[in-house]
Amino acid sequence: MSQTLEGGCQCGAVRYRVDGAPTYVALCHCTDCRKSAGAPMVAWSAFPEQALTMLTGEPHSFQSSANATRSFCPTCGTGLFFRNPHTLPGLVDIQSATLDDPAALPPQIHVQTAERIAWMTGIDALPAFQRYPGGEG
């Protein structure tokens, strides 16, 4: 499904637009993504590089490995983009949670499950609360 979506960082300094349909939408469990995001996994939406347009600000980039570059807001630190021309030529991975409507691109696959944290298996069986349990916040 082809669409136009916008997103950005937490503080609003960096905004982007992406046009078209993603090549894939994945939950990545690799150690590098976990370390970069401080989260047990990261949702990514891969698009052709030319589908991405910067609207406001410029992200800062960091070469996180020999072939990979991660881009983030230089003000608030929100992770935004991942590029690896060796593994994903011509694609930019966008952190799906930074979209204004992250529900627009639901995950289709899990990747790098060889590095998944063991306790992530069966995590959907944990009790769930709409807010903090016992609190109002």
Q: What do you see in this structure?
A:
Helix content is 5%, strand content 36%. It is mainly β and 137 residues long. The chain has one domain: Alpha-Beta Complex (glutathione-dependent formaldehyde- activating enzyme (gfa)), CATH 3.90.1590. Strand 1 (3-8) and strand 2 (15-20) form a beta hairpin. The radius of gyration is 16 Å and the shape is globular. The protein starts with a strand and ends in a 26-residue tail after the last strand. The mean pLDDT is 94.
Structure at a glance:
The protein has one domain (3-118): Alpha-Beta Complex (glutathione-dependent formaldehyde- activating enzyme (gfa)). The chain is 5% helix and 36% strand.
Order of helices and strands: EEEHEEEEEEE
Low-confidence parts:
none
For CATH, the homologous superfamily is named as: glutathione-dependent formaldehyde- activating enzyme (gfa)
The CATH class turns out to be Alpha Beta
Radius of gyration (Å): 16 Å
CATH topology, by name, is glutathione-dependent formaldehyde- activating enzyme (gfa)
Structure keywords:
mainly beta; globular; 137 residues; 36% strand
